[in-house]
Amino acid sequence: MRMLMQMIRHSHEESCGLGVTEISHQSSAFQSINSTCQDDLRNLLSAPSNFEIIFSQGGGLLQFSTVVMNLVNQYRLINRTRPQDPVFADYLVTGTWSQKAADEAKRLGCSVNILTDSHQYSHDLKTFESIPDQSTWKFGNHHPAFIYYCDNETVNGVEFTDEGILGRSGLPKNHEDVPIVVDMSSNILTRCIPTRLWDRVGVIFGGAQKNMGPSGLMVVVVRKDLMEVMDIVPHSYCLMMDGDAQDGNQNVHTWILGLVSLEHSCSCYGAFDLSLGEGLIRRCWYLGVC
């Protein structure tokens, strides 16, 4: 009830008395809401200044294709590859969601190298049970456009440690400059992202429905040097950012709920120690909702 009343107050204050569902997505009031959401999330994540934060409609599933179209085509642009030249992407398949992402990349014509498939290390060779030791990962001699993994596989109960795929030993030298793509749909804002990982990350994405707001809202944190205007890419990160969330008719109600939840999180613990984890987040949400 507390968060609901806060949402209603936000709507009234930002829209000169209009209701939550009456605010135009092209209005200055909505742009203010979108900008505040970006600032709050940057503060909570301690995201470096060389990253852009994009809120958009849709879910994290859309990024399975968007990541490939953006990063593969940028790789082609930078390396001046021929159309017939393969472009590799490395995927860690540790659960249902990373499997779906790898399948989508293959469907789009990307040369997918499976660094590891947890199926092969399970007791029945069919289930996802753990993350195989890094010494077993199959790094090739190729230079991939990106390395992809899902930080927390909710369906299978498999989660990486705070350091992600870097672990203790890091990655091979021929992969040191390869951007890392992380699906954090289910555990974003539950722990700190270490500086060591920020230095390697290219894209972090996730649906908002787990820890930031209702379904239908998606967040992408993308490194600025990976944002290029490319005519061949229908949903480029650069155009998403330039559109200031105005592409399509946005569900303003969803944005307002996201803003309320982010501001509530900031008031509870800010960016000072997300390592306190999900228990604190649950308590903050409970206090806000009840």
Any idea of the CATH topology? Aspartate Aminotransferase, domain 2
Helix content: 25-40%
Order of helices and strands: HHEHEHEEEEEHEEHHH
Number of domains: 1
Please provide the count of β strands.
9
Distance between the termini: 6 Å
Low-confidence stretches are: 285-290
Write the layout of secondary structure elements.
Layout: H1 2-14, H2 28-45, E1 51-57, H3 63-79, E2 88-93, H4 96-107, E3 111-117, E4 147-150, E5 152-153, E6 158-159, E7 180-183, H5 195-198, E8 201-207, E9 217-223, H6 237-242, H7 252-268, H8 278-289
Parallel strand pairs: 2-3, 2-4, 4-7, 7-8
Antiparallel strand pairs: 1-9, 5-6, 8-9
Helix pairs in contact: 1-7, 2-7, 7-8
GO molecular function: O-phospho-L-serine:2-oxoglutarate aminotransferase activity; pyridoxal phosphate binding
Organism: Phakopsora pachyrhizi (Asian soybean rust disease fungus)
Domain Aminotransferase class V: 4-230
